[in-house]
Design a protein that fits this description.
The complex is a heterodimer of chains A (130) and B (423). Chain A is an alpha/beta fold and 130 residues long. Chain A has two helices and seven strands, in the order αββββββαβ. Chain A is 22% helix and 32% strand. Chain B is globular.
């Protein structure tokens, strides 16, 4: 009984803190702040579409490491799988949605090594020391 | 004056050709059906990825479709052979494909999509031999080469125009709109089909002198026919050496050319399509004039040449004209496959069963090609994959040149004109 009371208290205390976040920005429906990633489009620095997210890679601790994106090609012919390091991804509000983009030149992204799950070095990350 | 004469000649040439019955209907049937099929070929993976499907899920349903298509080829051809209600059967199959497209648009969930793609594979195994059977029934054996050429021409136009319009719809409206468009294309396809005169459609298509109900030749005799065995082997090798080439090359071009690769690959796809649309009727007429064998040798010879050029030439822009060779191969193969099958089954009447067997051979070759070339490309590099495909193309053209006999029956037609003026 006592533990349940503590949990209730914690919820009561936490609730106002949470409510402050959205109150400062423009009013957004709560669902717009959850971003489904499978199939989400990834854009380049000039707003050009690079491809769609097809997989999320996590490390053994469950932390996201990279998003695998199907880039390039024409109507599904010639596309390649490139794993974008999680730190490269930029999350920008775009209307009521969140837009996923990356600040790397598209040709560099598309020409990056193809992702192979057995080789962590195939994760595309220009900031990583060689 | 010269212009008027030219105009008259042009008009006569086309009006004379219009005497062949059901031209417009067959043109429309081939074009609209090809447009429908384009939606399933190119847009399904992108649509499902956009719906949040994982790659494993997409791979599973596409594999189910491919396997169904393989298993259905021979039964599909056999069913078309034994019925004389060809128009009804073909109409039902087209409606089935439309239903599959609507189901894809309405229910992008695992089970409905799986069922829709399986249904599409089943209808495809009826539609391809069904159109071929309707064509033979409408025009008979005499004008078959020319008419099959025109079938391939309109199929190429239909799939090209379909891909362009559906691509526009996908970017302007949604990928879902593509499948609604595909379903709507069933309406003009069925109108075209029903515009064909029903009586010739029920004719026997075998040339055997008896009035027995076809098909009369045994399946075993068909399988034992040496010409059939050789041609089936040629079909496997054709697809084995050509199916994976573009995919392997396109991945390499994307890696090197980045964003520009999209335009290059588009040119790679469109150039052969245009050549097929322009040259196929001429290929069909030429086949009646000089026979099947020379055309088959030329078409198959383009395979190793193209694969070798892909291995040797590094600049992707220089490879764009090389894609004309794919157009040559596709035009020749598209016309010759049904034409040779019709030649080989003149007596037995097992025309569409033989088409089903050759269709199975083709899908097997194509599946092997992508698997083997993909493995070689990742293991030993893309050039090794190109050389492997070139070597199998060389085997294919050698087999055609040494073992494939001429299958045309009867005298050469259209001797009045030199062969290059057959258009």
């Amino acid at each position: 009984m006592r533990r349940r009371g503590l949990v209730a208290l914690a919820v009561l205390l936490a609730a106002p803190a949470q409510a402050q976040g959205p109150a400062q920005g423009p009013a957004q429906p709560p669902s717009a702040r959850l971003v489904p990633l499978m199939g989400k489009r990834l854009f380049g620095p000039a707003g050009e579409e690079l491809g769609r997210v097809v997989d999320i890679i996590a490390d053994a601790a469950g932390q996201p490491v990279a998003a695998v994106v199907d880039v390039g090609g024409f109507m599904g012919i010639g596309s390649r799988r490139v794993a974008m390091a999680w730190s490269l991804l930029r999350w920008k509000p775009h209307g009521e949605f969140v837009r996923l983009s990356i600040d790397v030149a598209p040709d560099v992204v598309i020409g990056a090594p193809e992702f192979r799950r057995e080789d962590p070095a195939t994760i595309f990350d220009p900031s990583r020391p060689k | 004056m010269r212009w008027r004469g030219g105009f008259r000649r042009l008009a006569r040439r086309h009006l004379v050709r219009q005497r062949m019955p059901g031209q417009l209907g067959l043109d429309g049937l081939n074009g609209f059906v090809a447009g429908m099929r384009t939606a399933f070929g190119a847009f399904v993976p992108a649509y499902l990825a956009g719906q949040g499907w994982t790659q494993a899920q997409i791979g599973l349903v596409l594999t189910a479709e491919t396997v169904t298509s393989m298993l259905a080829q021979v039964p599909g051809g056999a069913i078309v052979d034994v019925t004389r209600r060809r128009r009804l059967l073909l109409g039902v199959a087209i409606l089935g494909a439309a239903a599959a497209a609507l189901a894809l648009a309405a229910f992008p969930m695992q089970l409905p999509v799986l069922l829709a793609l399986v249904l599409h594979a089943l209808t495809g195994a009826i539609i391809a031999p069904g159109i071929a059977a309707v064509t033979v029934a409408m025009v008979g054996r005499r004008d078959l080469g020319e008419r099959l050429g025109r079938n391939v021409q309109f199929a190429s136009i239909g799939s090209g125009a379909g891909a362009a319009l559906m691509g526009l719809a996908a970017s302007a409206v949604s990928e879902r709109a593509v499948f609604v468009m595909a379903a709507l294309l069933a309406i003009p396809a069925i109108i075209s089909l029903w515009s064909l005169h029903p009586r010739p459609l029920r004719r026997r298509v075998s040339a055997a002198p008896t009035d027995a109900v076809e098909p009369q030749g045994s399946v075993r005799a068909l399988l034992a026919d040496r010409r059939m065995q050789v041609f089936a082997a040629c079909v496997v090798l054709f697809h084995f050496s050509s199916a994976a080439l573009l995919a392997v090359a396109a991945a390499e071009i994307t890696r090197r050319a980045g964003m520009k690769a999209g335009m290059l690959i588009a040119a790679f796809v469109i150039i052969p399509q245009v050549l097929v649309a322009v040259a196929s009727p001429w290929v069909g007429r030429l086949a009646e004039r000089i026979g099947r064998r020379p055309l088959l040798v030329v078409g198959f010879a383009s395979l190793p040449l193209r694969a070798a050029l892909f291995a040797l030439v590094d600049d992707p822009y220089l490879l764009v004209p090389v894609q004309l060779l794919e157009g040559v191969a596709a035009a020749v193969f598209g016309v010759m496959l049904p034409l040779v099958a019709a030649d080989l089954t003149r007596e037995s009447g097992r025309f569409t069963l033989s088409l089903g067997m050759l269709g199975l051979a083709g899908t097997l070759g194509a599946a092997l090609s992508t698997t083997v070339a993909g493995l070689i490309a990742t293991g030993f590099g893309v050039d090794a994959a190109f050389w492997t495909l070139a070597a199998s193309g060389l085997v294919a053209v050698t087999l055609v040149a040494l073992a494939m006999p001429e299958t045309r029956v009867g005298p050469a037609r259209d001797r009045s004109k030199p062969w290059w003026r057959l258009s």
